[in-house]
Amino acid sequence: MAALAAVRRCRVLLHGAVKSSFRGSPSQPRSYSAGRLSVQERIERKRQAALVGGGQKRIDAQHGRGKLTARERVALLLDPDSFVEYDAFVEHRCSDFGMEADHNKFPGDSVVTGQGRINGRLVYVFSQDFTVFGGSLSGAHAQKICKIMDQAMLVGAPVIGLNDSGGARIQEGVESLAGYADIFLRNVMASGVVPQISLIMGPCAGGAVYSPALTDFTFMVKDTSYLFITGPDVVKSVTNEDVTQEELGGAKTHTAVSGVAHKAFENDIDALLNLREFFNFLPLSNKDPSPVTECHDPSDRLVPGLDTLVPLESTKAYDMLDVIHSIVDERDFFEIMPNYAKNIVVGFARMNGRTVGIVGNQPKVASGESKAPIRYQHLISKLYYCCLDINSSVKGARFVRFCDAFNVPIITFVDVPGFLPGTAQEYGGIIRHGAKLLYAFAEATVPKITIITRKAYGGAYDVMSSKHLRGDVNYAWPSAEVAVMGAKGAVQIIFRGKNNQADAEAEYVEKFANPFPAAVRGFVDDIVVPSTTRRRICRDLEVLATKKQTNPWKKHANVPL
Amino acid sequence: NGSKWDLNLGLLVHRRVCYLLGSCHVVTTVFPSALFSFLSVQTFDKILIANRGEIACRVMKTCKKMGIKTVAVHSDVDANAVHVKMADEAVCVGPAPTSKSYLNMDAIMNAIRQTGAQAVHPGYGFLSENKEFAKRLAAEGVSFIGPDTHAIQAMGDKIESKLIAKAAKVNTIPGFDGVVKDADEAVRIANEIGYPVMIKASAGGGGKGMRIAWNDEETREGFRFSSQEAASSFGDDRLLIEKFIDNPRHIEIQVLADKHGNALWLNERECSIQRRNQKVVEEAPSTFLDPETRRAMGEQAVSLAKAVNYSSAGTVEFLVDSRKNFYFLEMNTRLQVEHPITECITGLDLVQQMIRIAKGFPLQHTQAEIPINGWAIESRVYAEDPYKSFGLPSIGRLSQYQEPLNLHNVRVDSGIEEGSDISIYYDPMISKLVTYGATRAEALKKMEDALDNYVIRGVTHNIPLLREIIVHPRFISGDISTKFLPEVYPEGFKGHQLTATGRKELLATAASLFVAAQLRAQKFLGDLRVSNTQQERRSWELCVELEKGVHMLGVSRSGATYTVEIDGDKLEVSSDWNLASPLLTVTLNGIHRTLQCLSRNAAGEISLQYLGTTFKLRVLSKLAAALSVHMPEKVPEDTSSILRSPMPGTVVAVSVKAGDTVAEGQEICVIEAMKMQNSMTAAKTAKVRSVHCKPGETVGEGDLLVELE
């Protein structure tokens, strides 16, 4: 009914423009005769109907929920007048449960697809339309998405999905499921070929969640979006847990607890504007270089504050974000997963205009924070500042692999005393999860620059983009300590049962708690004054821009999942 | 001396190279009129500076010019501080708390022995007026660069100093304290003192029951009320009749005296702009003094100095009333914080003079040679929030810091650099910003520019307040008193209030900046895949939000100049649009302004510092603005049941525990920061749900202290 009303409304709007076409038969608006004028009329009607989706009433309801319509979203995301729509005339093909009726047919069905530009660069977009059957996925809907994904692959351009869908079109049954699978397959085929970004702007439940999960980045809108496999009702009936939608799969849950989403934004507008900013960091495909934008920040700028940033006491914390902000162009750092596994910092920035991926241990945050009981937190924060743990390894590994897949150089800031000890970590499989980060750094062939700011102990030293894993340029700050472990632990093992532990500890500190053991072996290329770090990285990136390195031929590698 | 000069020059050059290698920030000092002859005499080989921060750096600068080696002392947290890097040698004297480091005489005495320093400059604060310290130095034959123990002691005692001042014929506040027989006697006393007088019961504390009388009649009336009150409320007949100082100004005289009985006065400093008895803006000379009053004050100050055999630099503080009567307040027997403004107008280096005097040299100048050249203004730049009782301390790391030293006639005395921490342990002063000009107007204009060009990021600072004070009509006309701030801002400081023109300037700048950033975002270098078919935009329709007002703006571009249309008015905005620079220098319809862009994000939010105050704006395209009506309102956190620390500090006391019921306004806990205790009170009557702090703990700004139900 709503669709019908919308069509009528459009007719009224169109009245002036296509007046001539109604000549002679004004009282028969629905006569779809085969005449030439009539086709013109039908085209216009359909096109206009497509523009209002599920009709004004549903649009109002969508706005009432604090959400924008599919088309409004596309208009905000893309450069003005750049959107080129595909398949506005596609309709669903279901004929069961009364779906074949005219009022149940909507031109374009429940998704808007096409291509356009973000700051002049090509992007393919689909935007699910909640006003048409709750954005549910029909065969036609899936087919539309698949079409733009196929074309994105052909020309090498990113795909952005704006998700707002109640799930499968139940009336279509298995056809809808097939549609999901078609999309999943394309997500997988496109993985590592073109960047894929999902922005969840409403519900996304059941099987539908796996499409965002397969894409490179999943962003959410606070309070109006959620992602889960099964909703609160099913949860209640199966596990007897009482949980709200927001608790189960809201933006907070996925950005802070599960790590499913990479970032959340305040509302639709905030999210779309941020997505434009984020898009500017990305190369268009795996065959394009990391983009370089006009940069006003001098590449040889010294950062005097860095010379005093690392505290003299090696157990005292500092904020790695201070290091990152002051080194990158214009303090502009797009952090990925800022609220999850905060003991590692990852994100995009630019150096002399060129996009780089930044990975840094975060000494300010204790590892395994959310898991340790409150009463032990003070102990943990003292002992295990910025250790690698399960979550931070996985977070880092996924980010490094994205950078490597899309030619984005990786800059790693290292301050890591090791992997986090404890049963929680061992039972959780820190061995296989830690291996992911090791694997990611080792296989990466993009330019890799590493700066050891303070501790680089044990296996974690090897993992963090060390020289041994083909780091191109590895620097140590004067405050760096590269060693197998901290002095206390080392002395307890070397001099077990002996009395002069204090002297031995002092000797160990003298010998190993400095950058020399690594520097004399060539494991770091130079010991640098921290304030010159930006200048050096900018120069190194210039040199490494032509780096070519390939891994042995293989069908695909076997990352320890 | 020629060879020594060469030697020292070599040393300086060598150190500069070290600085470059270490990339330390070298702070240069600008003395508008340099009359110094630094290397004319041999004083000391090595001086230890028993202080930190800007004053330690200030003293070292002169030492370096005089070819004297310097020794810094520092606490462990200050190991990387600027004053430590500047010194030739540095000794750690203890942990962070001042009582264990900078006030730790044993450790400092050890440092002196260890380094062989021949003299100690104490700076101000800490041990500068500690006679015990001066004694211990004397016992070991180390020179104290300051007056001798006798003068410190005499002037350190409030009562004794007044008696000495009286004897030296220095004006003191006249008064009578005792039983007054009748109204006639009260009138007689009042006339002796001179009007206006203040009458109150001796037993009444503070300003309670205080009456001001400007003539005999009012004195009689005041006597009647006060004696009744004295008898009924306190059962004590004594009355206090004292000279009332209306609109008091705080004006001080800098003196310089040697060990040979010579003394000079180096003119006055006007320090009336204060908050909580701490000076904020000072200037020299004062707009208020005429040459006669100046000479009278100067001569009395010198006679006081002579009366206590004063040697070194010292300051005699006076209160001055609206009729130019002046009264002795106290004498500070040290180098004063605000000494640079005196240096600017006299051309003397006070630290150099102090060092010479300590070595026993006679004064180089006669009173007739002391000039007033031009005008100097000093703003004390503090790490504090001026919106909370004119300044509550704030801490943090100076993530970006840039002093306006590119401007002429600007001197910045600071002891910090980019990357320094402003910690809870020490004074939150960032620097002393001094500007100089041939006239007061010139110095004030320079101060406006200097404040606009001063980049401080990472800590909250008081530049908004300073920038407002120096352009306030009352301040410009010289109509100030120690009550200036509470009188001008009775509701507390609220930042710069935008005029209609100012609002337009701000809107136009934000809109232009937004467009410049949008255009830059499309500039990909060497990328062949950027669309060629898209037309470059020439005009934009924008919606800008500022202080809850929404404005529709039209922007069009021609090169680096944007024409912004606001409500029918057109503004031309041009700039180099450097998006990396913290400073944003724009020309608005031909007027140059320096703004600062504090932050800018993808969602169109822009923070601009304009005329000292930070304004938050939001720039959206017309489409985004139209659609934003659909965005849900976010409900802000209910703050009445949550008590957060308004500043970083130490919890001194917690007066409640979970389960207690507190009344609105009842004290919940006390936070101490920078020697100031702040009582935190309940915003409503409620039961305490949980307490998240305990005495002795340090808390950060915004940390949760107590939750109410």
UniProtKB/TrEMBL annotation, chain A:
<comment type="pathway">
    <text>Metabolic intermediate metabolism; propanoyl-CoA degradation; succinyl-CoA from propanoyl-CoA: step 1/3.</text>
</comment>
<feature type="domain" description="CoA carboxyltransferase N-terminal">
    <location>
        <begin position="36"/>
        <end position="294"/>
    </location>
</feature>
<dbReference type="Pfam" id="PF01039">
    <property type="entry name" value="Carboxyl_trans"/>
</dbReference>
<dbReference type="InterPro" id="IPR051047">
    <property type="entry name" value="AccD/PCCB"/>
</dbReference>
<dbReference type="InterPro" id="IPR011763">
    <property type="entry name" value="COA_CT_C"/>
</dbReference>
<feature type="domain" description="CoA carboxyltransferase C-terminal">
    <location>
        <begin position="298"/>
        <end position="555"/>
    </location>
</feature>
<dbReference type="GO" id="GO:0004658">
    <property type="term" value="F:propionyl-CoA carboxylase activity"/>
</dbReference>
<dbReference type="InterPro" id="IPR011762">
    <property type="entry name" value="COA_CT_N"/>
</dbReference>
<dbReference type="InterPro" id="IPR029045">
    <property type="entry name" value="ClpP/crotonase-like_dom_sf"/>
</dbReference>
<comment type="subunit">
    <text>The holoenzyme is a dodecamer composed of 6 PCCA/alpha subunits and 6 PCCB/beta subunits.</text>
</comment>
<dbReference type="GO" id="GO:0005739">
    <property type="term" value="C:mitochondrion"/>
</dbReference>
<dbReference type="InterPro" id="IPR034733">
    <property type="entry name" value="AcCoA_carboxyl_beta"/>
</dbReference>
<protein>
    <recommendedName>
        <fullName>Propionyl-CoA carboxylase beta chain, mitochondrial</fullName>
        <ecNumber>6.4.1.3</ecNumber>
    </recommendedName>
</protein>
TrEMBL record, chain B:
<keyword id="KW-0479">Metal-binding</keyword>
<dbReference type="InterPro" id="IPR041265">
    <property type="entry name" value="PCC_BT"/>
</dbReference>
<keyword id="KW-0809">Transit peptide</keyword>
<keyword id="KW-0547">Nucleotide-binding</keyword>
<dbReference type="GO" id="GO:0005524">
    <property type="term" value="F:ATP binding"/>
</dbReference>
<dbReference type="InterPro" id="IPR013815">
    <property type="entry name" value="ATP_grasp_subdomain_1"/>
</dbReference>
<dbReference type="Pfam" id="PF00364">
    <property type="entry name" value="Biotin_lipoyl"/>
</dbReference>
<keyword id="KW-0007">Acetylation</keyword>
<dbReference type="InterPro" id="IPR011761">
    <property type="entry name" value="ATP-grasp"/>
</dbReference>
<dbReference type="InterPro" id="IPR001882">
    <property type="entry name" value="Biotin_BS"/>
</dbReference>
<comment type="pathway">
    <text>Metabolic intermediate metabolism; propanoyl-CoA degradation; succinyl-CoA from propanoyl-CoA: step 1/3.</text>
</comment>
<keyword id="KW-0067">ATP-binding</keyword>
<dbReference type="GO" id="GO:0005759">
    <property type="term" value="C:mitochondrial matrix"/>
</dbReference>
<keyword id="KW-0597">Phosphoprotein</keyword>
<keyword id="KW-0092">Biotin</keyword>
<dbReference type="InterPro" id="IPR005481">
    <property type="entry name" value="BC-like_N"/>
</dbReference>
<keyword id="KW-0436">Ligase</keyword>
<dbReference type="Pfam" id="PF18140">
    <property type="entry name" value="PCC_BT"/>
</dbReference>
<dbReference type="InterPro" id="IPR016185">
    <property type="entry name" value="PreATP-grasp_dom_sf"/>
</dbReference>
<dbReference type="InterPro" id="IPR011053">
    <property type="entry name" value="Single_hybrid_motif"/>
</dbReference>
<feature type="domain" description="ATP-grasp">
    <location>
        <begin position="162"/>
        <end position="359"/>
    </location>
</feature>
<keyword id="KW-0464">Manganese</keyword>
